[in-house]
Amino acid sequence: MNDVVLHGPLGRLAKRIAEKGGVDEFSAYAVLLSLWSASISRSVSMLSRGFLRPPLVWMALVAKSDDTAHEIFERVTAPLNEHDGSPLQSVILQNATTKAQFDTTVRRAVPQGRKDPNGTRNVVLIGSPFQTRGSNSSSLQDHLQYAFRGAWDKGRQTSVSIAKNKLGSAEMPHIGLLWSIGEDAWNEGFNALPAATKSRIMSVTGDTLPSPTKSDTEILPQDLVEISHAHRWAVARSRILDFTPAAKELLGKIYSSVDGLGTENPGRSQWLDGPEGHFLRAFEHTLRTAASLAAADLSTLIGVVHAKAAWSFTRRSMLDTADLLTAVNGRTPVTTFILAEIADIDAVIAQLDLADEPLPDYGDEPVEPDRVDAEGGPVARREAVVQRQLRDSVIVRKVKNWYRNQCQICRFAIRVPGPAEGYSEGAHIRALGIAHKGADSLDNLLCLCPNCHKRFDLGSIYLTDELRIIDFFTGESLGDLFLVSGHQIDLENVRYHRRHFAID
Fold this sequence. Notes:
Elements: H1 8-20, H2 25-40, E1 44-48, E2 51-53, E3 59-63, H3 66-81, E4 91-94, H4 99-108, E5 123-127, E6 132-133, E7 136-137, H5 142-154, E8 175-182, H6 183-188, H7 195-198, E9 202-205, H8 225-235, E10 239-243, H9 245-258, H10 282-296, E11 301-302, H11 304-329, H12 333-351, H13 383-403, E12 414-415, E13 422-423, E14 425-428, E15 445-448, H14 450-457, E16 461-463, E17 468-471, E18 477-480, H15 491-500
Parallel strand pairs: 1-10, 3-8, 3-9, 4-5, 5-8, 10-11
Antiparallel strand pairs: 1-2, 6-7, 12-13, 14-15, 16-17, 17-18
């Protein structure tokens, strides 16, 4: 388990941003994950140790210098800010060191009266509050640290007085945190914080890339379709996430190892005062990351796939933190112990035979209305056909909800007015009917736009066994078929489609 799993819509968007150049995939993923968790925390929560917790994922992005760390943040967020209405935009507070600065920004995020169309917005703290100047560095005011802890525990900041708006606690801004810190500032400032503060913030290291890998790659509106659709789903109503039985088993194994990390270590009494206090909330970070990833999948269930991806991220943060500590203090007994604990958890997870659950059926998602015939009336159906249509609609609806009406071939999503929001078509790889005997099943079904559906049905584009899209007339590859986690394609159907058009 050396790699971080870049899961779901956030992982795919991170890869697109990395293709634009100047930042690696992991750094892009870390920034997106932190901003996403803040954007949904007012409506999404999970049950953790008997309490409802927000899925906030707070991070300190550490690089060689403050400027380099902030440049990473800018390179990830700049393409998103080019498009109006990005769900990851927030009220920003940069380089705050006092509670007065914090309180002022929180008030800015509150709607100015009940008719404010923007409503309450989340606040994200960025930059570095540890500006190093020679041998001195600024420090966080104690009152601000207390405010941070309450905001992380409850999601919202309840200590700011906003009496004129008479807001209920559920309407208070929720707080995200994504600091960009240089290594010196991390050591002199962040590392010196009490464990009660720094253990709530994961440290991850990153760096800018010297040159773009694909300078002509742009982040287009359709690249934001998935995450925008997921955001609308997440904030539409209050959602409390639960765990599947298999995910509970997996997370239970992690919990037994990392909760109270170091309790058997003779030097544990030094943890609360020493730099190793970074690791005390590793399990809570894993839970929150898993919940954020599940919400991005439009799922009220946190499954094995989310738990594994979340642990891979927490694991990377723990390794990065251990490296930062080792660079300052050398290898200590506690950092050695941390590395051994990570290896033990990896071994336990590898031994568990837990299958990923199938993606849930999002029954509350809008679907397109019934089609009409050329005369404007509904298509007539005999009773037997109606029964088949109803059965088919469940399968087609599921695959469309998986892809949020985004075409698996061209990745374009047709947007339409009204409750449907988008339009796509379910395309069977091996056609139904007596002539072809194709199965009406998810492994034989694609979500396509009308244009790609017709081209695929007529054989002008086809798939290889590696699920690459090929143009029949030029033989050129058009890229890989877009697949979400859990959507398995039966290659026998793919081969039948090629044989039908005499391609094989």
